[in-house]
């Protein structure tokens, strides 16, 4: 896994950030019925920095940057 991580970081020029703050992402999986959130009415949105409704709309690079909190391309 370290080889893959290093390769991805190098390809997208992502630097390791040891001073990362906690970045909270809420994302939904409508494609997996057992993981689907039923009757969620956005009551907790204010607790998250970003809400993703469909992760499939993000490119691989955007997903990597999202989970390493380097959102600017």
Question: Can you describe this structure?
Answer:
The chain has a domain at 17-67. It is 25% helix and 8% strand. It is built from 2 helices and 2 strands; from the N terminus they run αββα. Strands 1-2 form a two-stranded parallel sheet. The longest helix has 10 residues, at 2-11.
Instruction: Give average pLDDT, whole number.
Output: 80
* Backbone structural class: alpha+beta
> Which range best describes the helical content: under 10%, 10-25%, 25-40%, 40-55%, 55-70% or over 70%?
10-25%
Quaternary state reads single chain
State the order of secondary-structure elements, H for helix, E for strand.
Answer: HEEH
Strand order of the largest sheet: 1-2
Strand content: 5-15%
Instruction: Please describe the biggest sheet, giving its number of strands, its sense, and whether it closes into a barrel.
Output: 2 strands, parallel
Can you lay out the helices and strands and say which pair or pack?
Blueprint: H1 2-11, E1 25-27, E2 50-52, H2 60-67
Parallel strand pairs: 1-2
Summarize this entry quickly.
With 73 residues, the chain is an alpha+beta fold.
Which terms summarize this structure?
2 strands, 73 residues, single chain
């Amino acid at each position: 896994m370290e080889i893959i991580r290093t390769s991805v970081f190098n390809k997208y020029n992502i630097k390791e950030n040891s001073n990362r703050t906690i970045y909270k992402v809420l994302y939904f999986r409508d494609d997996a019925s057992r993981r689907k959130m039923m009757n969620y009415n956005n009551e907790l949105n204010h607790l998250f920095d970003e809400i993703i409704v469909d992760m499939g709309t993000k490119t691989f690079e955007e997903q990597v940057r999202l989970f390493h909190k380097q959102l600017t391309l």
